[in-house]
Amino acid sequence: MAATDFIVAIELGSSKITGIAGKKLPDGSIQILATANEKSSDCIRKGVIYNLDKTTQSLTSIIKKLESTLKASIGKVYVGIAGQSLRTIRNTEVRHLDEETKISQELIDTLMDSNRMTPIVGYQILGVAPQEYKVGLDLAIDPVGVQTDHIEARFLNIIARNSIKQNIRQCFEQATIGIADDADDLIAPLVLADAVLSPNEKRSGCVLVDFGADTTTVSVYKNNLLRHLAVIPLGGNNITKDICSQQIEEEDAEALKIKFGKAYVEPTEEYDESKTYTLDNKCSIQAQLLEDIVEARMNEILDNVAYQIAQSGYENNLLAGAVLTGGAANINCMETAFTKRTKIQKIRLAKSTQYVLKGTEVDKDGSNNTLIALLGAGKENCCLIIPEVVVPKPATKEPIRTVIENQLFTEEGESMEEIRRQEEIQRQKAKEAALAEEKAKKEAAEMEKQRKAECDELLKEATELKDEKKFKDALKRLDKAKKMNIAEKEEAIAALEKEVKKLKEENSLTNKFASIFNKILEED
What we know:
Elements: E1 7-12, E2 16-24, E3 30-39, E4 44-45, E5 48-49, H1 52-70, E6 76-79, E7 87-102, H2 105-116, E8 123-135, E9 138-140, E10 147-161, H3 162-174, E11 178-179, H4 188-196, H5 199-204, E12 206-211, E13 216-222, E14 225-232, H6 236-244, H7 250-260, E15 276-279, E16 283-286, H8 287-312, E17 322-325, H9 334-342, E18 347-349, E19 357-359, H10 369-377, H11 416-467, H12 471-483, H13 490-523
């Protein structure tokens, strides 16, 4: 039986693109209905799409595989934003008030909007993690209702290069796959943290390290707030490539790393130089050489992790320690190596998320945690449901025999009365079929009329929001209108979208210049 209620998530990984479909059950668990994956090493590097056509082909293949298992069409999916350029930067917005005034939510929203309009050349703000607000001399998480004449809002902006989000959208559009409305700015590391970290870990302070194929993502939390996020362009694949330098095939190098590699090797005075590691009689490597290669590269990665923890400013306040996840976190002796390089004693290896999974088995080694987290974050039904207009087929027209009005029987002995009755039934069926066909055409025309009316309403709302300088909301309306795929409206949507983006950019520059001018006046 075809599934009609499910959520679909896709993870754009550096080693593979993976799709998963599942259904949330009343008890809070998730039933996995289907999974599919395609290799991505030739189209995604460091978590960033670089070959759009090959990525589109992989996405199309994954969707077809999922639909084949589900026996249903997929209308939209959830996808997270990740990649090498993803990171956080701090920003502060200050307001000096003329007199002691009670802080309102409107003022907080104004500070947030002003922060979001901060121009960053080549980058865009994907999300904002508000930090503490300085009210007078005190710090507060929620300052609404406090009397003051000065407020300093501290924000942690999550940014990425403009091309990251653009490329994702372009690939999904080329593959004719919609992205769920509430997944517009879904940031993969934040979704992963919500699925892996406990409330106590976020509150007490911890660092979440996701060891991927091409990247290692570091997220620092304290007092339930994200404090720092950075993506290191090094991962498990770097170790594999180092082993490949010893004239070993990549597949075999990966197997050697997983089976024999150690992130930390206890120093010994004597070492058996003749000891080798052999892989199913395919290849072999000197044990000490393999251990040196793996440990050296892991030390480099972990030293970068330690640096990012120090950059957060919370290295001495992580009472919950470190939580390690991702496929590359499974290398032998990882916990010991992590402690040695970062000096963090409390380590937890997260091989699964907080979600209870049922149905199709999924590897529980940490490599699918982001994928499961994206699935868990989904709220909208991703099944494509197309309202069907049933047009009854006209009744088969059979030749109506001509009879003599007063004749009782035909030459073959058939009753003329029965023949007349059957002829009347045929005429009635043909009439009903014609009426049903006409009704169906009218209903289809009415539905198309309604769709156009909805599109016109979205354009109207977008225009009003543009005039109110609510450019982000205006662009969301235009995005919804664009997804309706009404050919005759495409030109109007494109023109209005271009105008809104231009005004948004001009407004950003105006606000920035105004802020600079105000600071100059204050200094004078």
